[in-house]
Structure formats: structure tokens, C-alpha cells
Specification:
Length: 574
């Protein structure tokens, strides 16, 4: 499995940490990224470090259980190792699966310039809200340091770093530093946690840390980078932003025998550190949508443009991700659609620079009314009858799907987490689509992101400078406009109260009484237990809808879908 090349020693080791965007299953493409970086840093670096399972893409889910996939990965890995023999390029640390007795291992392969490999196996397997590695990987033994050119590298793959025993074991075995290949997805506040774990680890072990995370979207997960180098004092000497980039670090042996880090001289200054919380969330939405559309080969997206804030923000994210020419907003007015909403939708599309289609649905509503009248004649009408409100929403869904079929564009759903929670959405209507960019974003956060984007446009976004929606869209009371005089808060209460209750129930897993207490403290106003009970009941009853909803970007600690696995048939409720 390995040959010892530690005799090739140096007093200084030059490492380039590569924060790049792999694609699950794209073995040739992922290894070509490795090849390009090796060519770029030939003669300038000793070792390139890539993120967890970079060669195969990550997370692999059940794909890794297929023997043919593992054979193809190993062939691609061996091909790279063969090319590296004597070519003058740097060594590489790259990850992927390794066959085991029953299940494969999650492995990191240190490929030397003679083509030999040293292999480190992941010991601690996550089994949490979005990862189920215990189902598809076998745990490896406690890792030992790897000798490399006069230094002992402690390689801790992702979860192994998040649990202190691995770092302490590596330190006890004489590691000089910790190298941490990661596949750590974005959620709000995550970067602060990563840095805190780094400082805690440095304090406990006395070892510097090179933390290398991937960046890019993979289905619902967005990997936000945030790679960093932390010295023995716990100081961050390099930190990557929310984009593909790399930074170089020089390792030097200190007078006390320990390893000191300094910024290398290959790349110069690293621009743009990690963004603040609001920008990070917005960038996650943009990156998640961009990679979902591009990696799955869609030419663009089509979405309903109602004149409301959810569709306006979804359209802005889409234009920032894909460019105005790949986004098609569609107005679909009914007799209940206000002139104000029509104007606001047109103005938002104009600000974004997109085309705007208008397809009235009154004739579809009349057709369904005529079709169903003989069937409904004489049947009792429920007290809260939403039949023809939902016909409107489904007529719009049918229209968008027809455009998708004809033009090849993916339908972008525009619902938010508040609505998904309580079922304030129509199956096969506004819930239809291939992706839901706001699926994990509460309504109060939708307002915050809309205000932020109207005054900010960070580097790398493809949308326009300046406002992307009229202020009136943000200021007016939200409404589905499925009947006269309808507003969302008539049905749901104030969004500030609703979201506070939902956050304590969903993220905190609290019951209604405790949720009412915590939500009251959060908003500084009393929220009754009766209101919390009503919201809990609505949320429990809506599980069957959420199970049929499209995927969307994960931004919270507990997202619907992979992080929320409740039975539909459930007499306990929440």
C-alpha cells in the first residue's frame, strides 16, 4: 500500500491548499482538476492538498456501494499515480473510496512523485442530519501520522477533526501538524464553529492546522469553502472565501522542534476572507442553484413571477447564479391578481434585465369550473373550501411545466420554509418544480435577504448592480391572491411570531408549550400556547406535502428532507 519516501527530507515544506469544486461521479473531470493544479505548481510546491473524497466527489451516498464505481475510481487514481512518476510536479493528497471487507472505507491517498501511495482511513463516520456514512462506509482504525519529507503529517479526515480524540492521538504519535481534508456543508454560523474547533484543537495538541474544505453545490448541500491555516498560537494566517481558490503555506521547523506556519510566496496575498452571515447565506443560495442547474445540464430556469417577495427574491438569486439570459419569469394573472402585483412583477423583471412572459389563467379557471360543476352539484361544500383557490395554483403549475417541457428549462419553485412548515402551499401548484431555492429560508429571512440584495452586489454575482426589486414588493403585506382581500398573515399570524415558533419547534425540537415560551422571549412579545399548538398541528399535518416537495438549498441546522424524517402517518404530531 505504501513506500516510505521520508528519506527525501527538507527543512521547509511548501503546501498548497486547494479549495475547488468537484462533481460526484465525474472521475475524469475531478482528476483533471488535480492535474491542472499540479501543472500550475510544478517546481513551486511540494504537496497539494484537496478536500475530502475530491477524486470521487462528495457526498457519495449509495453510489459508493457500487463495485463498478469503486473499480473505476481506483483505475483513475492509479492512472494519476502512474503519470506522476518522475514528472517533476508536486505530491498530492486526494480522497475517495477504498474497498473494504464488507463496506468501503473513506480514504485519503497521499501520492508521492514516484507514484507510491500512503493511505489514511477515516475513523469517525457522521450519522447526523444530512450525512449517513455509517450506512455506506466502514470505520477505519485510529489514524497514525504519515512521514513526508522530514515532517510527520497528521491527516484527520473531516469528522475525525471534529472529535478531539483523533487529533490528540495523532499528536501523541508525533505528528508535526494536522491536515484536515473536509466535506463540510454550509449552514448559518458554521464557519465560526469550524474556527472554534480549530482553536480548541490547537490548544489541546500544540499543533498547527491546515483545514481544506470543498466549495460548490451537490443537490441540497452547498459546500462553502472556508478553508484556513491556523498556527500554533491559534491565529488564522490564511482563510479562503466562498469561491474556488487556493493558498500556499510554508512549514518550517522552529527552534523548539515544533512546526511554524507562514504564508507562502507563490500566490501572494489571499483576497476576500469569509463573508458575513447575510452575504454567506445569499451566496449559498446562488451557488446551490448554479451548480444544481449546471451540473445537471439544464439550459436555465423558468419561474412564476407573482409580484410578491418570494418570487422576486428567487428570480434575483437565479439571475445572480445564471445570468439574466437563462432566467424566464412568467406572470400568470387570475381575476384576483391586483394591478399592483402585475406592475411589481414587471418592474422586478426590468430591474433584473430578464424577459417576462404573461400567460393569463382565467380561461383555465373557467374551464375547470365548467368541468367540475356537474360533478360538484349537490355535494356539500366544506366550511373552509379551497378547491378553486388550488385550481388557480395548479393551473399556474401546469403552465410552468408546459413551458419547461417545450423550452427545456427547469421550473424553479419559489416557496419558503415558513410556508413549507405549515402547509401554506399547493401540491402540484406552487410547490411544483425541480428545485426550491428558498425551501430552507424562513419568511423573515426572505425579507432580510431581499433588503440586503437591494443594496449589495458582491463580486462574482451575475445580476445587476443596485436594486433588484421595487421597494413596494418588500413593504406590502404578502398575499397568495387566490381570493379577494387575502393576506398571508390572516391565515398564519405575524411572520415574526410564526417563524419564532417554527424555529423553536423545528430546529429546537420543542413542543408547543416550550415553543411558545422560547418564541415569546425571542420576539419580546407574548405568544400564546394556543397559537403554538395551532402551528404545531398545521406543521404535523403538512408532512405529506413536504415529502413531495422539490430539493432546495440547506441553510439551517435542521432542513426538511434529509434533516427532518418524520412519518406521515403520525398520531403524536410534533
Amino acid at each position: 500500500m505504501s513506500n516510505d519516501t521520508s528519506a527525501n527530507t527538507t527543512s521547509t515544506l511548501r503546501i498548497v491548499c486547494v479549495q475547488a469544486n468537484p462533481t460526484v461521479g465525474a472521475l475524469q473531470g475531478n482528476f483533471d482538476i488535480v492535474r491542472r493544479h499540479r501543472a500550475q505548481y510544478r517546481g513551486k510546491a511540494d504537496l497539494l492538498v484537496f478536500s475530502e473524497c475530491f477524486g470521487s466527489g462528495y457526498p457519495l451516498q449509495d453510489l459508493v456501494l457500487r463495485p463498478g464505481f469503486r473499480r473505476d475510481f481506483r483505475a483513475a487514481l492509479d492512472a494519476l499515480a502512474g503519470e506522476m512518476r518522475g514528472d517533476g510536479g508536486p505530491a498530492v493528497l486526494v480522497g475517495g473510496p477504498l474497498d473494504g471487507a464488507a463496506l468501503p472505507y473513506n480514504a485519503a491517498f497521499l501520492i508521492e512523485t514516484d507514484g507510491s501511495m500512503k493511505i489514511v482511513l477515516k475513523h469517525t463516520l457522521p450519522n447526523d442530519e444530512v450525512y449517513d456514512e455509517k450506512r455506506v462506509f466502514a470505520p477505519g482504525p485510529l489514524p497514525a501520522p504519515v512521514d513526508f519529507r522530514g515532517f510527520r503529517l497528521g491527516i484527520a479526515i473531516c469528522e475525525d477533526f471534529w472529535h478531539g480524540k483523533i487529533a490528540q492521538a495523532l499528536a501523541a504519535e508525533g505528528a508535526d501538524l494536522l491536515i484536515v481534508p473536509n466535506g463540510s456543508h454550509f449552514r448559518t454560523g458554521k464557519q465560526a464553529v469550524r474556527l472554534a474547533i480549530g482553536r480548541r484543537t490547537v490548544k489541546a495538541t500544540g499543533l498547527p492546522v491546515l483545514y481544506v474544505n470543498q466549495v460548490g453545490g451537490q443537490d441540497s448541500l452547498v459546500f462553502d469553502g472556508g478553508s484556513y491555516a491556523m498556527d500554533r498560537a491559534g491565529l488564522v494566517i490564511a482563510q479562503a472565501g466562498f469561491r474556488e481558490c487556493e493558498f500556499d503555506i510554508a512549514l518550517e521547523r522552529g527552534e523548539d522542534g515544533g512546526v511554524d506556519l507562514r504564508r507562502g510566496d507563490v500566490l501572494g496575498m489571499l483576497p476576500n476572507g469569509y463573508p458575513d452571515e447575510t452575504e454567506a447565506m445569499y451566496r449559498a443560495l446562488v451557488l446551490g442553484l448554479r451548480d444544481y442547474v449546471d451540473k445537471n445540464g439544464f439550459p436555465g430556469v423558468v419561474l412564476g413571477m407573482s409580484g410578491g417577495i418570494d418570487s422576486a427574491l428567487s428570480a434575483a438569486v437565479a439571475v445572480d447564479a445564471l445570468g439574466a439570459g437563462r432566467v424566464l419569469p412568467v406572470r400568470m394573472p387570475s381575476p384576483h391578481t391586483s394591478a399592483e402585483s402585475m406592475e411589481d412583477a414587471e418592474r422586478a423583471a426590468s430591474l433584473l434585465g430578464t424577459r417576462l412572459l404573461t400567460v393569463p389563467i382565467a380561461s383555465a379557471m373557467a374551464a375547470f369550473d365548467g368541468m367540475l360543476a356537474p360533478v360538484f352539484d349537490g355535494l356539500p361544500v366544506p366550511a373552509a373550501d379551497t378547491t378553486f383557490e388550488n385550481v388557480q395554483a395548479r393551473a399556474r403549475g401546469m403552465t410552468l411545466m408546459a413551458l419547461s417541457n417545450r423550452l427545456g428549462l427547469m421550473v424553479l419553485s419559489t416557496g419558503n420554509k415558513s410556508e413549507m412548515s405549515v402547509g401554506y402551499a399547493t401540491l402540484y401548484g406552487d410547490m411544483c418544480g425541480g428545485y426550491s431555492v428558498l425551501k430552507d429560508v424562513y419568511k423573515t429571512i426572505v425579507f432580510r435577504l431581499a433588503r440586503w440584495r437591494n443594496t449589495h452586489r458582491p463580486e462574482g454575482l451575475l445580476g445587476p448592480q443596485g436594486a433588484v426589486m421595487p421597494d413596494r414588493i418588500i413593504a406590502k403585506p404578502p398575499s397568495a391572491e387566490l381570493r379577494e382581500g387575502q393576506t398571508d398573515e390572516q391565515a398564519l399570524g405575524a411572520y415574526e411570531h410564526l417563524d419564532a415558533v417554527l424555529a423553536t419547534m423545528v430546529e429546537g425540537l420543542n413542543g408547543a408549550d416550550r415553543a411558545a415560551e422560547l418564541a415569546s422571549a425571542a420576539v419580546g412579545q407574548p405568544i400564546s400556547a394556543a397559537y403554538a399548538e395551532r402551528i404545531a398541528g398545521m406543521t404535523a399535518r403538512a408532512q405529506y406535502k413536504r415529502d413531495q416537495s422539490p430539493p432546495g438549498v440547506v441553510v439551517t441546522e435542521r432542513t426538511y428532507g434529509p434533516g427532518w424524517r418524520l412519518p406521515v402517518t403520525n398520531h403524536y404530531g410534533l
